[in-house]
Structures are given as structure tokens and as C-alpha cells.
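The record is kept unedited without comment:

——
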Amino acid sequence: MASGLKPRRSHQVLVVDDDPFIQQLAQAILSPRGHNVVVAGTGAEALARLAQAPPDLVLLDLGLPDVPGLEVLRHLRAARSWDRVRILMLTASHEIGDIVHAKQAGASGYVCKPIQPDTLADMVCDLLEQDSLLWLDDYTRAHKGS
């Protein structure tokens, strides 16, 4: 999907980053594309929001001031109910070790700051479309022979 097009339905995206500029930038990139963007500035705030209602996608910074982003990721992936939620790491770290650890912990993707608006929008769109395709595939399998 081209980055300028709106998705077929509005998706809930949680942006977890302690930098207000990144929070605002993510909102500016994703809201005009039809996504409902909610922000959290700490790992604890993110976990509290996530306990209320799971979003369709989480943009998660590795370097949070309280709980490391990797620990938030591990916490989410430990819960079976979070299997379908896409988690895109959004971080300043270009270290291969961080990328590998995030992938091993269950991240759906990894974006390095500074953020390129079209790249972020396209990655979010691609991950959300994958989720829809997986859901349809799971639904088809569950209802075969009914």
C-alpha cells in the first residue's frame, strides 16, 4: 500500500517513547493515514495502557527511562494473548546485538532513528496488513469443514 493511502479500517497504534518529539512525529505520520495513535512515555505507562486494551501495533523504544523496551517486549510476548499484536522497535540503537536481541524476543520489526516518515508509514501499514492476512488465514483454517 502506498504510504499516502488510508487503511481500510482504523487501527490502534501505541507509541512508547520518552521523547515528546518522537511521540508527536509518530502521531503526525500515522494519524493522517487513519490510525488512532496513543502515546506512553515510560515502560510502566505502556504496560498500564496495554492492560486496558491491546492495540493493533506497538511502536516501542528500546531506551525507556524506567523499564527497558526489551523487557516490555518480553513481558508482552510472554502472554499468549499478545501473539498477534505487532511490535515494531523504534530506537536510536544501530547495534547488531540490539537488533538480534529484539528479534529473538519477538519483535516484528526494527526501525532506527532518525525516522523517515514514508518508511515508518509503509512499515506500519505492511505489519498491519500482515496481521489481517494472518487473521483471515486462521479464520479459514478454523472454519474448514464446518
Notes: The longest strand covers residues 86-91.
